[in-house]
Amino acid sequence: MFSKKLILSILGCLSVVAAVPAADTNDLPYPVAPFRASYQETPDSEPIMLEGDVHDKVQKLRARAGLSEFSPAALPEIRSELVERTQQNTFCCKDIGQPWNYAWAGCTHSAAINLSVLKDVYVEPRSCVLAHCYGEADIWVCNDNDHQIHPEAGYIAKMAVSIELTCVQTNDSHKRFSCGQQFDSQNYNVILRRTGVQNTCPTGKDKDCSAWSY
Which residue positions does the secretion signal occupy (predicted)? Predict the structure, then answer.
């Protein structure tokens, strides 16, 4: 079982596919697997499976549903939903010795809102998937089980925002940025970190997330 208290070990060579960034993934706990998720257009409709370019598909689904991009006005509502969530299984990067960099809060919330459009995220045993990214913020899901898992995308999004709230730091301009890892009781974990320097997230790459990272 993957230890919560030790620095994550690097396990073997990573299998990287076109659906996820090919850079800066050798510091994840497991090899990178292709992104797969389900989407349900209405509560009564049959879920459909999505594979491939997560960024392009999520953006098209949001446009199809008439949903706009993240607005800073949504921050109070997002944070209020997490008031009751326990933080005991959250580990901030500064405390666990990980080399991951910090992501602006604005990018984190944008990635989380886009991710929540989906229904479930599928993660193969002992692997990690890039659930979503926006600008410089990555949201990864890593499966510590020996079987496939499919947690709700909205729940993963809330875990990412929960990490942001728990591990927040601010600069001299009072802008917020965070980095950390949160473990779920179902034996998987979510990582929030800055996108690697060798990779650019195609979604929000031209946005200055610091402008709404308060």
Answer: 1-22
